[in-house]
Amino acid sequence: MSGPQPHRSLQSLEREDAAVRLRAAGLTTEAIAQEIGVHRSTVSQILARHQRWTQFKEAPRNLEERWTGLFGVRATNALRNYGIDSEEKLAAASDEQLLRVANFGRHSLRLIRQYVPNPYPPAEIPEKVQRVMRAAQIGRERAEAAIAAMDEP
Question: Is pLDDT above 90 for 31?
Fold first, then answer.
């Protein structure tokens, strides 16, 4: 699949790269966990996600088989029944469009967005949410000012 990687934090990507490099060097899951500073179950999840992504990109099988392996039968069938039969159509579909598909819910959307990023920005943020965000920013600024004042002699 071509296109950008799904959005993840830089720290997450760096950890994944480090875990994959260390595994290729022959380290155990426990040793990798100690090296990158996470729990070994997190390393297992990182390596499994990387393996699925590699298989997704390199699999010579048809698209429906790849999607079934990644997203599950229900999501794959829902996409096919809705008329989404290519990676381009899937990438072009907005979250709102996908959530309107029968038998396709938030869990399926999360699975898909791990591998196929949403090219559309989220819908406009409602006014009530904007007010809460502004209040949180003001609270953070006040807390930082109070901390700075305590640090001054």
Answer: yes
